[in-house]
Amino acid sequence: MKHSYIKVLSLLTFFTIILTGCGTSTPTGDSKDVKDLVIEISYDELFKQVFVSTFAQQNPKVPLMFQISNLEMTYENIVKECNSDENKKYISKAAVEAKKRIGTIPIELKNIRTDKVDDEIHKVFCSADLTVNQKSIPITYTAQINSDGNLYVAVYGL
How much is the CA Rg of the chain, to the nearest whole Å? Predict the structure, then answer.
């Protein structure tokens, strides 16, 4: 009787390990969640680029201000440095216009290639072609399960 009890306990332990695994599995570079996050990050970056050009067109003094200040004219710097009431109106207007412009631009992820898989840290390294408005841009990205069990994606080459 004692022998069958140990056998049942061993089988239960084995199935528990099989069913739960030893933690979260490594994501794949072509999974829907990973691709959706890569595209979302790409849209965010595209928004920032369109915002900067739109803001500069609406407020021609700003590029000169950045040049004099020796600051790069980026989305983050505009929001940080242009905090007057007048500029806040331009920021709001540029954001609305930028969202409207990028809303019509199709972005697709094609030719996804897995470059490396690190199962120990649950991370995959990938290359792909990001097609923005029918123009292809080579990018790389990583996808990893973080310590909270959430998917974390970083995109490079935008």
Answer: 24
CB 39 within 8 Å of CB 139: no
User: Which tokens sit at 82?
Assistant: 């242009």
Report which of 147, 145, 134, 121 is spatially closest to residue 34, judged by C-alpha positions: 145
- Residue 3 pLDDT > 50: no
Q: List CB contacts of 64: < 8 A, sequence separation 6 or more.
A: none
Using DSSP's 3-state secondary structure scheme, residue 153 falls into: strand
What is the value of pTM for the model shown?
A: 0.75
Distances (CA, A) of 145 to 9, 21, 38, 131, 156: 31, 14, 15, 26, 18
Per-residue confidence at 21, pLDDT binned at 50, 70, 90?
very low
For the chain, the domains span 44-102
